[in-house]
């Protein structure tokens, strides 16, 4: 890591994005005392890090790490014993939440990858911690599982939990995160409110029966417009806050073109991500 | 501390391999001593002259108080069996990456190492209890002299405990450094059974050097001398062996302290 500075607002869902090898897991490993940083420091709850503070944080780092010969229940008893979060009844309830209750007495070694990931999420949720650190939480999950975890994160966020989440699934981050940081080769490229980071241009999608005529007509629109063709639509990129759909519609109509498609789109995280990381 | 002990118990109590190896240990310690006892009985029960000579020469190493020393010596040769448990308990943590999870969940690195220290301590205590029971049972069933001071050599229980803890601590160190169970087991067994004994004998007989007495396992191995009848073959050498016990208590304590200080120090510094 190189000079990374971040502040995670309480109650936010903070997404950490970056290509492979950008330092997402390294960053989370440092704040969880798994890796030692050469220099620099970090605070938890406004205080220097300590193992007592880690007990208040539900964490899933990289892979589900459990004793293979123990069942889900017995593994969670160890999590409970170390962290002091929750109680025996809560073990059943988190296992129900991640849909592992039926297999709670099976050995961890008999679980599929998705089930192992669910158990890791259950361990992080044990005791309803106010802060969660989730490194690629949907790894190994099927589409239904991914949607369930996404809903769970949104639900926890609504209840005021703070969630720090590393992911390379941009769609996932875009759907659940309130804040985002983008890393590349250990360097922080940008961070902030997800809308501030993602929206720096207005993107409007238009279409008509005759795309060539539409393209010629919209060229005269002005306002620093950039036009690209994408299949049967034209993508119009305008400076942030200048796209006015009724203006565009009127302009085209005055040129004799009737639009059959007009859509204002937020610039997608994927595009922004590629732009920032030069991929 | 109690919480660490409870957590370690949760890790161990449903670990089948632990109970298997403990079962093997529980069979081996009495088994090997009863086997040597049986051989001794076979030799000395001969009514011929040779049997009488052997009996006069050996005395009865399985009668109290001598049984404390005899059983300690034979039992100590098999410390590599509980060493398997020690190595498994630490290498498992690396194999399953649960050492990181324990830290992530809220243990300090010292808590983690304290847990392992407690494991080795308890295991040493368990095999010491096993040794003491075997020595007592064999000793009581073989003691015919009603005037014998049965508890005279009972301090061998402490020496056995110290030796076991020292050697199991070294097994732990190997597991802690190597991290892979089979490689750690192979290295420890090879060193314990082959390398160190050969190196000590080469140094002794070829180079006339006693530096081998200070090799990691030999330091504590010298806490438990051979049974007393060996003194009949070379009284001077046997007395020297007995005299070496006291200083080796100090060396062993020092080695144990250094071993664990190093483990705590390294665990605090290295990435998980």
What does this 3D model show about the protein?
The complex is a heterodimer of chains A (279) and B (272). Chain A has 279 residues and is an alpha/beta fold. Chain A folds into two domains: 185 residues, Rossmann fold (3-Layer(aba) Sandwich), CATH 3.40.50; 79 residues, YebC, transcriptional regulation domain (Alpha-Beta Plaits), CATH 3.30.70. In chain A, 37% of the residues lie in helices and 23% in strands. In chain A, the strands form three sheets. Chain A has a six-stranded mixed beta sheet with strand order 4-5-6-1-7-8, sandwiched between helices. Chain A has a four-stranded antiparallel beta sheet with strand order 10-11-9-12, with helices on one face. In chain A, helix 6 links the parallel strand 5 and strand 6. In chain A, helix 3 crosses helix 4 and helix 4 packs across helix 5. In chain B, helix 2 runs antiparallel to helix 5 and helix 2 packs parallel to helix 7. The longest helix of chain B is centred in the C-terminal third of the chain and has 35 residues. The radius of gyration of chain B is 20 Å and the shape is globular. Chain B has one domain. The chains are: A alpha/beta (279), B mainly alpha (272). At the A-B interface, helix 2 and helix 3 of A face helix 1 and helix 6 of B.
């Amino acid at each position: 890591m190189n000079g990374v500075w971040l502040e995670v607002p309480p109650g936010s869902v903070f997404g950490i994005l970056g290509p492979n090898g950008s330092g997402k897991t390294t960053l989370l490993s440092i704040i969880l005392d798994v890796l030692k940083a050469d220099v620099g420091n970090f605070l938890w709850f406004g205080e220097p890090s300590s193992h007592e503070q880690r007990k208040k944080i539900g964490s899933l780092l990289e892979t589900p790490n459990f004793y293979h010969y123990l069942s889900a229940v017995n593994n969670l008893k160890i999590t409970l014993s170390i962290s002091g979060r929750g109680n025996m009844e809560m073990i059943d309830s988190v296992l129900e939440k991640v849909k592992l209750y039926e297999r709670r007495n099976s050995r961890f070694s008999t679980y599929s990858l998705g089930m192992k990931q669910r158990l890791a999420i259950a361990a992080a949720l044990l005791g309803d911690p106010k802060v969660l650190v989730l490194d690629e939480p949907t790894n190994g999950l099927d589409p239904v599982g991914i949607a369930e975890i996404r809903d769970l994160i949104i639900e926890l966020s609504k209840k005021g939990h703070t969630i720090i989440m590393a992911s390379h699934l941009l769609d996932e981050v875009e759907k659940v995160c309130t804040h985002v940081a983008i890393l590349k080769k250990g360097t922080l490229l940008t961070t902030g409110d997800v809308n501030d980071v993602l929206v720096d241009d207005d993107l409007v999608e238009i279409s008509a029966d005759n795309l060539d005529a539409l393209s010629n007509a919209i060229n005269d629109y002005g306002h620093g417009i950039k036009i690209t063709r994408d299949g049967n639509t034209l993508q119009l990129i305008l400076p942030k806050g200048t796209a006015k759909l009724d203006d565009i519609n009127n302009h085209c109509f005055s040129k004799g073109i009737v639009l059959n498609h007009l859509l204002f789109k937020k610039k997608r995280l994927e595009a922004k991500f590629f732009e920032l990381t030069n991929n | 501390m109690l919480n660490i002990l409870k957590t370690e118990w949760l890790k161990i109590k449903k670990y089948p391999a632990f109970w298997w190896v403990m079962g093997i240990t529980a069979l081996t310690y009495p088994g090997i001593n009863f086997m040597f006892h049986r051989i001794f009985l076979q030799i000395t029960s001969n009514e011929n002259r040779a049997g009488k000579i052997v009996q006069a020469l050996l005395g009865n190493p399985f009668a109290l108080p001598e049984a404390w020393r005899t059983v300690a010596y034979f039992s100590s040769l098999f410390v590599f069996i509980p060493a398997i448990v020690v190595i498994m308990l630490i290498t498992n943590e690396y194999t399953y990456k649960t050492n990181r999870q324990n830290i992530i969940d809220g243990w300090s690195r010292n808590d983690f190492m304290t847990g392992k220290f407690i494991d080795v301590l308890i295991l040493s205590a368990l095999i010491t209890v096993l040794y003491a029971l075997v020595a007592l049972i064999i000793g009581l069933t073989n003691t015919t002299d009603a005037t014998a001071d049965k508890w005279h050599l009972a301090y061998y229980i402490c020496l056995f405990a110290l030796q076991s803890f020292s050697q199991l601590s070294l097994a732990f160190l190997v597991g802690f450094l190597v991290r892979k169970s089979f490689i750690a087991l192979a290295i420890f067994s090879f060193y314990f059974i082959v390398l160190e004994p050969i190196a000590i004998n080469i140094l002794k007989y070829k180079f006339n050097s006693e530096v081998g007495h200070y090799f990691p396992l030999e330091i504590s191995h010298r806490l438990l001398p051979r049974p007393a009848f060996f003194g009949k073959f070379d009284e001077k050498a046997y007395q020297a062996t007995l005299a070496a016990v006291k200083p080796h208590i100090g060396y062993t304590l020092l080695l144990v302290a250094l071993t664990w200080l190093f483990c705590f120090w390294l665990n605090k510094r290295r990435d998980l």
